[in-house]
Amino acid sequence: MILIVEGVNNTGKSTLINFLESSLGYHSINDDTNKEYSHDKHAFGIHSKAVLLAYTNILMKCPDSFNVIFDRFHLSEFVYGMIERGYYSSWVFDIDDQLFKMGAKLLYMEDDLESVNERAGRDLKMHQELFETVYNQSMLDKMRYNLKNPVSEVLGWIQDEKQQQHRSSVSLIE
């Protein structure tokens, strides 16, 4: 299963991912390689696209039993690319299409804007609004989650998917 956790800064993505990684045994990927390009917006965008396309190509070759959690992926690149770096990365919707074909799931972390702004030390209203827009446009199976809710909501959603995958593989064998 491919699980992508998205959302603005300081909504609890890493906290949830650490829990899921330890409780479910999933592998998690947090790509910090773009930090070396932060001084050059154009290079940053080109590098981001190359990294996300490479990950997508690798995922297409993984068996269905491979379980991975991404701490941010294509939607973050769209939001932060547009707001922080000033470029429009429409190619993320091509990646969304590929992820959809692979059965990836999207977990959108949210919290009230006042709390997020306080933890971030800046106003993230534009980021949150743009995330809402691209979340709604994504074709992936998706869920909204707030750390104030029981984590069993997320676990149930993941387990339902794993059971569906198991039933699909059993019916293919029969």
Pick out its properties.
disordered C terminus, alpha/beta, 55% helix, Rossmann fold, 5 strands, 174 residues, globular, five-stranded parallel beta sheet
Summarize the structure.
55% of the residues lie in helices and 13% in strands.
Please tell me about this protein's structure.
By secondary structure, this protein is an alpha/beta fold. The chain has a single domain (2-173), classed as P-loop containing nucleotide triphosphate hydrolases (Rossmann fold, 3-Layer(aba) Sandwich). It contains 7 helices and 5 strands. A 5-stranded parallel beta sheet has the order 2-3-1-4-5, with helices on one face. The two termini are 22 Å apart. Mean pLDDT is 85; it is low at 166-174.
Portion in beta strands: 5-15%
Number of H- or I-type helical stretches: 7
For the record, what is the CATH homologous superfamily label? P-loop containing nucleotide triphosphate hydrolases
User: What class would the helix/strand composition place it in?
Assistant: alpha/beta
> Shape from CA axes?
globular
- Quaternary status of these chains? single chain
Instruction: Compute the number of strand runs.
Output: 5
Q: What's the CATH architecture name?
A: 3-Layer(aba) Sandwich
Helix content: 55-70%
Strand order of the largest sheet: 2-3-1-4-5
Distance between the termini: 22 Å
Just give the CATH class.
Alpha Beta
- What is the N-to-C succession of helices and strands? EHEHEHHEHHEH
Mean pLDDT: 85
**Largest sheet, if any?**
5 strands, parallel
Low-confidence stretches: 166-174
